[in-house]
Design goal:
The chain is 10% helix and 28% strand. By secondary structure, it is mostly beta strands. The strands form 2 sheets. A 5-stranded antiparallel β-sheet has the order 6-5-4-7-8, with no helix packed on it. Strands 2-1-3 form a 3-stranded antiparallel β-sheet. Bound molecules: zinc ion. The site of zinc ion has 8 residues, from loops.
């Protein structure tokens, strides 16, 4: 007669694979862009808006309400839609929104006459093709969502 032991039952429990249950949840997060709103609205019109300090004559690629040199208020100014890659990195993992795109390339773009760099994605080039100094051009979503992903860069088309 086979003897059932309590200990073997516990061993089975302890050896279980991890239990996985489905428990969906959703959060609607209301986010205000506040004084940066013109930047996101500009993307829907195919414009890259930066900030300009009239006193220091400095233009910033990323919106800022005040100049980091003098502290004075800045004014909006369109910046070039073409630039060069200052540096880049290849991301092999990312947030959920980007998992389907991995590996993807992030670039810091430098623009002529603009003091700061602009962080964006580079699309249309494989990681091994990217070079510092590569000329790139901004592209804008035809179905904008008022997010930073409404703009990205692609290698500048050669004539
Ligand atoms: Zn200034």
């Amino acid at each position: 007669m086979k003897r059932r032991s309590r200990k073997s039952s516990e061993t089975v429990l302890y050896g279980l694979d991890p239990l996985i249950i489905r428990d969906p949840y959703e959060i609607v997060y209301r986010h205000s862009y506040a004084q940066d709103s013109p930047f996101f609205a500009g993307l829907t019109k195919g414009k890259l808006l930066g900030s300009h300090c009239p006193k220091c004559r400095v233009t910033y690629a990323t919106p800022r309400s005040h100049c980091y040199r003098c502290g004075g208020a800045t004014k909006w100014r369109a910046i070039p839609k073409q630039g060069t890659i200052h540096t880049y990195t290849t991301c092999y993992y990312g947030g959920e929104a980007f998992l389907d795109e991995t590996p993807f390339i992030l670039v810091l773009v430098a623009f002529e006459g603009v003091e700061t760099l602009f962080l964006s994605r580079l699309i249309g080039a494989r990681p091994e093709e990217v070079r510092i100094g590569m000329e790139v051009a901004a592209r804008f979503s035809s179905t904008p969502s008022f997010r930073v992903t409404d703009v990205w860069f692609e290698p500048k088309a050669r004539p």
